[in-house]
From TrEMBL:
This is UPF0678 fatty acid-binding protein-like protein. It comes from the Eukaryota. It comes from Acorus calamus (Sweet flag). Residues 14-159 form the THAP4-like heme-binding domain. It catalyses: peroxynitrite = nitrate. It holds the Pfam family THAP4_heme-bd. The lineage of its organism: Eukaryota, Viridiplantae, Streptophyta, Embryophyta, Tracheophyta. InterPro entries: Calycin, Nitrobindin, THAP4-like_heme-bd.
Amino acid sequence: MDGSSGDRAVHPAIAPLAYLLGTWRGEGEGGFPTIHSFKYGEQLTFSHSGKPVIAYTQKTWKLGSGEPMHAESGYWRPKLDGSIDVVIAQSTGLVEVQKGTFDAERKIVKLQSELVGNASKVKEITRVFEVINGELSYVVQMATNLVTLQPHLKAILNKL
């Protein structure tokens, strides 16, 4: 890229995850032993500023009404050794500090919470993002003080 079109060059540190860059939209479903299952619409955006970090934003809404449900944002910092640090602030006030790994060839990112802050009940969160046949899917698992780690959210999104 010569920069004349306004596009910033992707920093070498985030190049292995450049396939995530852009906006993804689709539907997901959630559940947990302590809540009723639900479906939702979702939009995820991964962007960059030329620095060695990916900015992440997410929002969900009720499928029927379009009423906003959840939002979160944060930063993904991939390292050259295949590890990644992620921080996410949720609209509920909960904060996640995640550590994980990525495999650029298989297009998979696995995250495990190091810290879940400002949460009275949530003890652990894992997230796995994977791109298969051009679709971004993820599974979020959660553990609380009453329930062991198990699936909470899953979705399939397509790039806009």
